[in-house]
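Write out this protein's structure.
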Amino acid sequence: MICCVSQNVSERPCPQVVRQLLLILRLPPFFQEGNNSTSHLLQQCLDSGISQVSVGLITWDEDQYQELMQPLLPPRCNIAAHKLVCEFIQTAVQLEGMDVEITAVDRDDVDKEKTEALSRSLGVTTPIRWRPYFP
């Protein structure tokens, strides 16, 4: 999953929370439990001054996401990477005070209307930031 976080510069950085956030970006949310759940760690980030996430949704299509991103998931993972990204986005959007930005690749074969529609269906209210594609 591609995700960037930003922290309010007036707040002191909290390396432990950032390390934990990086961990949840490497492991699918359903492998997390209790205090390590995606929602709990996102709340910790928010409490530490991290109030924005930028997530690479890339495309609306699960198969195309797989082709473009070639994600590597743990062997016991039985859920598609695209679905994990969508679940992460939904969790972040539901957290009051967390700003969620979605990015996607500007390619002829990526359906922008469907990708925008998916982003809205996940609860994101701002338009997608379309990034140039460099082969």
